[in-house]
Amino acid sequence: MMADVRPILQVKDLYKHFGGLVAVDHVSLDIHPGEVVGLLGDNGAGKSTLIKMISGAYKPDGGQILLDGAAVSFATPLEARRRGIETIYQDLALCENLDASANIFLGRERMRHQLGIFRVLYRSYMLRESRQVLDQLDIRIPELRNPIRLLSGGQRQAVSIARAVYWDARLMIMDEPTAALGVPEQLKVLELIRTLRNRGVPVILISHNMQDVFAVADRVIVMRRGSKAGEVRISDTNENEVVGLMVGVEYTQVIKQIHDAPEEVHITTHDESEKDIT
Amino acid sequence: MNVPDVALPDANQSQPGKTPLRPLDIVSRGWSWLFLLVLLIFFSITGQGFLNIYNFQTIGADMSLVLIMALGQTFVIISGGIDLSTGFVMGMASVAAALVMSGLGSSVPLPVVVLAGAAAGLGIGLIPGLINGVVIARLRVPSFIVTLGMYGIARGAGFILSGGQPVSIQTNGIGQIGNAYLLYLLPDGRVSFFHLPSNLQGVRPSQIIQLLPFPLIFLVVVVLICAWLLWQTRFGRHTYAVGGSEEASRRAGVPVVRHTILIYVLSAFMASLAGVVYTLRFSNGAADVGDPLLLTSIAAVIIGGASLLGGEGTIIGTVIGALIIAIIQNGLIFLGINPFWQFIAVGVVIILAVLVDQTKKRLV
Questions:
Q1: Fewer CB atoms inside 10 A, N or C side of chain A?
Q2: How far is B233 from chain A (nearest CA, A)?
């Protein structure tokens, strides 16, 4: 595919430290159109810091971010958003007291003229456009005028995604999008991620849920202790290998032992401690 | 494509408790209307002379000061803040307006006196509003603290400006504007606009029908403008957004700092407007005239369904809230009940309003 030749996002040697702690240590990665990339790593591996630099929340201490081949630097998340890097967070992203359409157009309201001089909200237009983009993504919200507060977690997530799509996001970053959802809604969000991929919008998916990542991602990037521990295509790997990359080679042996003979290990320890007590 | 056909479970299926919410929502939102209706019926039956067009005009004119202040407060409370300084800002504005009006005296035409006084009152009120807004939005000090400080500052400034005494205006015609009616009907069939006809032989004052007092007309206009501002404009939408989630608004590109400053300027402007209206009605200005109205105006907003947590509230709700308070106060007078019971009655209604709101939230 020709489209895959030129990456939308290129990260080169990105570096960030907090005092003496190196949070992200010279990480490079490319994201191509229409691909879903899982970003995995244990707690403290540097995933969040890396993502926050890409989305404009942190300023890198070194390295480069290129969007469509041009070097960019964002002072705020808002700037990154204006350039098309959209981050979907668990919360904080929507105004719960407003309806879906108000949220989709928040900060970018469509106005119309009233009596020739006043500029007022063009509600019918915004409602129509919102319904259209939600329909395109096959998101069903029974009552569009209800405040977001009355929607389910998955529907809220979907509204965030619809907003990003409506405003032509170039790249979507999703941080644990399924964490707080029930199973049917998790599936719907994964389906939405596939829809985005089909529309050519690449997605960086940060998740603890290995099954989710394996269900939708084309590629995984594994972080460990601030560095990129590995980058593999989903079709060439399995969950064990990825876990191995996440926890590192020294733990892989332990895991293998436990995995191979879990009962023996367990029982022995148990018995010994019992003997010691009695 | 291996896209599973899984629909988002809508609210009906996944959360059965949420479906009956809509009728409940209507009841909880409509309770203030219902309560107002009950009050009207109750006082109409029990209070001799309550149900009367003149009395309703009086209620409307009397609540105008509280309601004008409450309208500004509605924006502040929806945005998730509170403005405690409005009472003394109103007093300060009335002092400034009265000083200018009495200073100009009869040296210039009456309309100039009125306009100059109004400009002085409204102009001076912008200063505390701007300071409130900047300290709250830029320096991120809680609105309760900042406006409590401004409560004291405006109080002191008002008294210093007035020399500790009420400033009364001797200029002829000032009080007439504030107390005039739009329409006068005379028993012989004559109709007059704006002021009484000069030729009034054989007509007793009690025979003249006076309709639509100026303060009431002015109030209706101000209410309509505020309702338009909150419901139709981007300013109104952003007010709700900031009250719903400041963080989400900022991320969405809402200019939160500028917007917050504007909201406190608007609140101070409305308080000053109340001060100017007061001066035109009573031909004087005093630093402490607005203080008793502060808590009443906040009560009107809360009874009207606004949430102190922000994000909720409407102009019509605030109007209903102010009406409920005004009718309780007025109706109890007709019942001949000791006026101190008014405070108790209004206090009970405030608590009741918040209880209804909380019950609603729990059921949601």
A1: C
A2: 5
The secondary structure of B183-221 as a DSSP string is EEE-TTS-EEESS--S--TT--GGG-EEEEEHHHHHHHH
| DSSP 8-state class, residue A99 | B
Per-residue pLDDT reduced to its tens digit, B181-221: 877 877 777 777 777 666 666 667 677 777 788 888 899 99
pLDDT at residue B74, rounded to an integer: 98
User: How far is residue A190's CA from residue B33's CA, in Å, rounded to a whole number?
Assistant: 46
d(CA A248, CA A190): 28
Disruptive mutation site among B2, B5, B6 for chain A (greatest number of A CBs within 10 Å)? B6
Vertex B39 angle, CA B35 and B43, to 5°: 175
Q: Is the pLDDT reported for residue B8 higher than 50?
A: no
Asked if A243 reaches chain B (Cβ–Cβ under 8 Å), the answer is no
Q: Least CA distance to B248: which residue of chain A?
A: A93
Q: Are the Cβ atoms of A182 and B14 closer than 8 angstroms? A: yes
The percent of residues in chain A predicted with pLDDT above 90, rounded, is: 39
Q: CA A139 from chain center: how many Å? A: 19
CB contact under 8 A, B364 and A151: no
Q: What is the pLDDT of residues A221-233, one digit of tens each?
A: 999 888 888 888 9
- A78 touching chain B per CB within 8 A: yes
pTM across the whole model = 0.84
Interatomic CA distance for residues A151 and A122, integer angstroms: 24
- Cα gap B102→B263, rounded to integer Å: 31
Does A94 contact B at CB distance below 8 Å? yes
The residues spanned by each domain of chain A are 1-84+170-237, 94-168, 248-278
Element (H, E) at B132: helix B110-137
Q: Which of A92, A140, A198 sits opposite B247 (nearest CB)?
A: A92
Homologous superfamily of the A1-84+170-237 domain (CATH): P-loop containing nucleotide triphosphate hydrolases (3.40.50.300)
| Total beta-carbon pairs less than 8 A apart between chain A and chain B | 115
Of B18, B237, B241, the CB nearest to A150: B18
Q: What is the extent of the structural domain holding B313? A: 30-363
| Amino acid, res. B202 | G
**Mean pLDDT across A232-238:** 87
